[in-house]
Amino acid sequence: MIHLPDKRIVVTGGAGFLGTHLVQRLERLGCRDIFVPIYQEYDLTRADAVERLLAQHRPEVLIHLAAVVGGIGANRANPGSFFYANAIMGIQLIEAARRHGVEKTVVLGTICAYPKFTPVPFREEDLWNGYPEETNAPYGIAKKALLVQCQSYREQYGMNAIFLLPVNLYGPGDNFDLESSHVIPALVRKCAEAVEEGRDEIVLWGDGSPTREFLYVEDAAEGITLATEHYDKPDPVNLGSGMEISIRDLAAKIAGITGFSGRIVWDATKPNGQPRRCLDVSRAEKEFGFRASTPFDIGLRKTIEWYQSRRLAPASKNQP
C-alpha cells in the first residue's frame, strides 16, 4: 500500500473534468504536494516538455489522466490527431517515469479499447478479442497500446505501472460543448436549450438502441485513488457502476428532469457507435474494494442542476 499524503504526486489532466475531482479527493485525503501541469507550460506531446516536467517536479506517484477525447462526432472528425496525441503522450510519460524512477505510475485507458462486439458484461480478459468500434478505434487502440507498454515495462524493468479502464463518466463540471461532448452532457444541453427557446423537437444521433454504462465522476475519482493506494498488478481493471441503459431511455430520463416535453427525433443516418456497453466490475471490488456508490438518477439530477445553474445569459448562450 502507498500512503499518498506522504508522496509527491503529478496528475496530468488534473485541471480537466475528471482531474479536478481527483485532485480534490487527494486533497481531502491529506495530500499536499500535488502538481497539475497545464498545456501552455507542458505540451505532453513533446518529449522535451515531458522530460522537463519529471525533472522539475520529481513525482513519486504519476497519475496520467490527460487525453484528447470527444463523442462520436469528434472521433470521426479527428481520428489521426486523436490517435497521435493520446499515444504519444502516454508513451513518452511512461518512458520518462521509468527513467526517473517514479515509484507508482497510474495510466487511465478507455472503454473504447474493447472490441465492438464484446459480450456483455465486458470482462478484462475480452480486451484483445476483436477490433474496437470503428468510430473510436484510433482513440481506443492508442490507449490500449499504453497497457502493453505498462505490462512490458513491468516485466523488463520491474516498473510499478497499473492500467485502469473507466466507463463513460458524467457529473458536474463535464464538457457541454456540442462539438466535442459525450452523450449525457450533449442530451442535457439539447433538452435545456429546447425548453428555454420553446422548441417542441430535438434531433439525436442514431436510433436510440445502443446501451451505455455511466460512472459518476466522484465515484471514478474514488476508484482511481483506491487503485493508486492498493493495486500493484499488471492486469487491467474496469472502473464502472455495472448498470446499463439504452440511449433512448437515457434521453427520456433527461427530458423528464429538464422539463422537455417535446418530440425526440432519431436521425438514423448518423452512427450509433458500439451496440452495447456494460462492464464486469468485480475485479475492482476484489482487488481494491471499489464499488460505485452514486445511484444513477441522483448523479444525473446533480449533473443537470449544475449545468442549469451555470447557464449563461441568452446573448451568450451559443457558448457552453
Describe the structure.
With 320 residues, the protein is an alpha/beta fold. The chain has a domain at 4-170 and 214-239: NAD(P)-binding Rossmann-like Domain (Rossmann fold). It is 42% helix and 14% strand. The chain has ten helices and twelve strands. The protein has helices at residues 17-29, 47-57, 72-77, 79-99, 137-157, 183-197, 217-230, 247-258, 282-288, 296-309; strands at residues 9-12, 34-35, 61-64, 104-108, 161-166, 168-170, 201-205, 211-212, 214-216, 237-239, 245-246, 263-267. The strands form four sheets. A six-stranded parallel beta sheet has the order 2-1-3-4-5-10, with helices on both faces. β1 (9-12), α1 and β2 form a beta-alpha-beta unit. α6 (183-197) packs across α10. The radius of gyration is 19 Å and the shape is globular. The model is unreliable at 313-320 (pLDDT under 50).
Largest sheet: 6 strands, parallel
- CATH names the topology of the domain at 4-170 and 214-239 as Rossmann fold
How many DSSP-defined strands?
A: 12
Distance between the termini: 41 Å
Question: How much strand content do the residues show?
Answer: 5-15%
User: Count of helical segments?
Assistant: 10
The average pLDDT is: 94
CATH class of the domain at 4-170 and 214-239: Alpha Beta
Structural class: alpha/beta
Radius of gyration: 19 Å
Measured as a percent range, the helix fraction is: 40-55%
CATH superfamily of the domain at 4-170 and 214-239: NAD(P)-binding Rossmann-like Domain
Molecular shape? globular
Low-confidence stretches: 313-320
Following the backbone from N to C, one meets helices and strands in this order, namely EHEHEHHEHEEHEEEHEEHEHH
| Order of the strands making up the biggest sheet | 2-1-3-4-5-10
**CATH architecture descriptor name of the domain at 4-170 and 214-239:** 3-Layer(aba) Sandwich
